[in-house]
Design goal:
The complex is a heterodimer of chains A (about 190) and B (about 200). Chain A is mostly helical and about 190 residues long. Chain A has helices at about 5-15, 25-30, 55-75, 80-105, 125-145, 155-175. Chain A has one domain (about 5-175): Ferritin (Up-down Bundle), CATH 1.20.1260.10. Chain A has six helices and no strands. In chain A, helix 5 (about 125-145) runs antiparallel to helix 6. Chain A is globular, with a radius of gyration of 16 Å. Chain B has a single domain (about 5-190), classed as Ferritin, CATH 1.20.1260. Chain B has helices at about 5-15, 30-35, 40-65, 70-95, 110-115, 130-155, 160-180. Classes of the chains: A mainly alpha (about 190), B mainly alpha (about 200). At the A-B interface, helix 4, helix 5 and helix 6 of A face helix 4, helix 6 and helix 7 of B.
Chain lengths: ~190, ~200
C-alpha cells in the first residue's frame, strides 16, 4: 500500500515537473494509493543505506523524473486506451521516484533539485511518444544494471532490482505498442 | 543478446579473474580480492537453477500438450527458449564456482510436487485447456520473480548481481507477455505493480 507520505511526494514531484506539465496531474494521481495494493513495500525491509550510494540514487532519481515528465507530456497525445496504460505507468514511475527518495533519506542524503525542464524533443504522434518513452525506459534499465553490483547491502540491490524489473515490463508494453516483440532477449539490458 | 557461449566465456573469465563484469566494467581491487565468490553464491545459484529447470519443464510440458491456441504457441516457445538461456548462464556460473547443477523434475508427478511446494495451485497433470496452461505458467513466473528478488539480496561480487537482475527483468517480462495472452484487451493488467517482488 502506498503511504500518504508517498502520495504527497508524488504530488510534490508533479508540481516540480513544470507548469506546462501540470495539466491533468491530479487526474493522473487517481490511482495513487492503489497501484501496489497487496504488495509488501520495499521499505518494510530494514534498510541500511550507505552514504556512498547517494550519488547513484540521485542520478537514478533524475532519470525517473525525466521519464515522469515524458509521460505527463506524452499522455495527451495518446488515445483513450493508450492513455489508460500510460497513466498507470506514470503512477509506477512516481512510485519508483518515491522509493529512491526513501533510499536517499535512509542514507542521510539530500535529493538533488529537480531540473527546471527536460529536453524531450517534440513528439507529435502516439508512435513518437512511445519511441521517446521506450528510449527513456531502456536508459533507466541500463543505468540500474550498471550500478547494481556497486550497491550494498543486499536489500538495497533487491529494492533497485524491483524497480528495474518493472521498467522492463513497461518496455515490453511499449514495444508491443510499437509493433515489436515484447520480450526479444533472455537477458534484459535496456539496449534491446 | 550475447550468445550462450559468449556469456559463459565472460562469466568464466570474470569470476576467475575477478576483474571483468558482464559489460566489461572494471572493478575495484576490493572486488577483485573478493573473487572467487563466497560459498553462498553457490547455494543461491543452485537454488535458481533448480527453479529454472522446473520452469523449463513446465513450458516444455505445456507446449507438448497442444493445449495452447496457435497464436500463443509461438510466443510461449520463445519464452521457453529464454528460460533455456537462463539455465545455461546460471549453470555456467555455478560450474565456475565449483558447484554442481541440480537435476530437473524427473516426471510430471515430481514437477507437480515441486509446484505444490512453491504454492502454485495449478498442476501440470490436470490442465484443463489453454487458459489454464497459461495461468500455470504465469503463476510460476511470479514465483521466479520472487526467487530472484530474494536472490538479489544474496548474490555478491562484481558479476552475479547484474546477471541476476537481467534475468529477473526477463522473468518479469515473461509475466507481462503471459498476462497479455490471457487478457489482450486490457494491457493495464499486464503490469499491475510498480515494484516487482513476485511471489514468495
Amino acid at each position: 500500500m502506498v503511504s500518504p507520505e508517498e502520495c504527497a511526494s508524488r504530488r510534490a514531484l508533479l508540481r516540480g515537473a513544470g507548469t506546462t506539465l501540470a495539466v491533468s496531474a491530479f487526474g493522473m494521481l487517481a490511482g495513487c494509493g492503489t497501484s501496489s495494493a497487496g504488495r509488501a513495500s520495499v521499505k518494510k525491509v530494514p534498510l541500511v543505506v550507505r552514504q556512498a550510494d547517494v550519488t547513484i540514487f540521485n542520478h537514478s532519481l533524475s532519470l525517473e523524473r525525466q521519464a515522469i515528465a515524458a509521460y505527463v507530456a506524452g499522455i495527451p497525445l495518446l488515445n483513450a486506451s493508450e492513455a489508460k496504460v500510460a497513466k498507470q505507468f506514470l503512477n509506477q514511475e512516481l512510485e519508483h521516484a518515491g522509493e529512491l527518495l526513501g533510499l536517499i533519506a535512509a542514507a542521510g542524503g539530500k535529493p538533488i533539485p529537480r531540473a527546471p525542464s527536460y529536453d524531450l524533443g517534440h513528439p507529435r504522434t502516439a508512435r513518437e511518444v512511445f519511441t521517446l518513452l521506450h528510449g527513456l525506459e531502456g536508459n533507466q534499465i541500463a543505468t540500474y544494471l550498471a550500478v547494481i553490483p556497486r550497491l550494498s547491502p543486499g536489500p538495497v540491490r533487491a529494492a533497485v532490482a524491483s524497480i528495474l524489473a518493472n521498467d522492463a515490463q513497461h518496455l515490453s508494453i511499449l514495444r508491443l505498442e510499437l509493433g515489436d516483440s515484447p520480450a526479444p532477449a533472455a537477458f534484459v539490458t535496456g539496449r534491446e | 543478446m550475447p550468445s550462450q557461449t559468449t556469456r559463459r566465456e565472460l562469466l568464466c573469465r570474470g569470476v576467475l579473474a575477478g576483474g571483468l563484469g558482464l559489460a566489461g566494467a572494471t572493478v575495484s581491487p576490493a572486488d577483485a580480492a573478493a573473487a572467487p565468490a563466497p560459498p553462498s553464491n553457490v547455494a543461491v545459484l543452485g537454488r535458481l537453477v533448480r527453479l529454472e529447470l522446473l520452469i523449463l519443464y513446465a513450458y516444455q510440458h505445456v507446449l507438448a500438450s497442444s493445449l495452447l491456441f496457435s497464436s500463443a504457441q509461438d510466443v510461449v516457445a520463445g519464452l521457453r527458449d529464454q528460460e533455456q538461456a537462463h539455465i545455461h548462464a546460471l549453470s555456467a556460473a555455478l560450474s565456475v564456482l565449483g558447484g554442481t547443477s541440480p537435476a530437473g523434475p524427473a516426471n510430471i508427478a515430481a514437477a507437480d510436487h515441486d509446484l505444490s511446494h512453491r504454492n502454485v495451485s495449478q498442476r501440470l497433470g490436470k490442465l484443463r485447456g489453454g487458459k489454464d496452461a497459461l495461468r500455470l505458467l504465469l503463476a510460476i513466473e511470479h514465483v521466479a520473480e520472487g526467487a530472484y528478488y530474494v536472490a538479489m539480496s544474496e548474490l555478491g561480487g562484481p558479476i552475479l548481481p547484474r546477471l541476476g537482475a537481467e534475468i529477473m527483468a526477463s522473468e518479469a517480462q515473461h509475466a507481462t507477455v503471459l498476462t497479455v495472452l490471457l487478457h489482450p484487451v486490457d494491457l493495464t493488467q499486464a503490469v499491475p505493480y510498480g515494484l516487482v517482488q513476485g511471489r514468495r
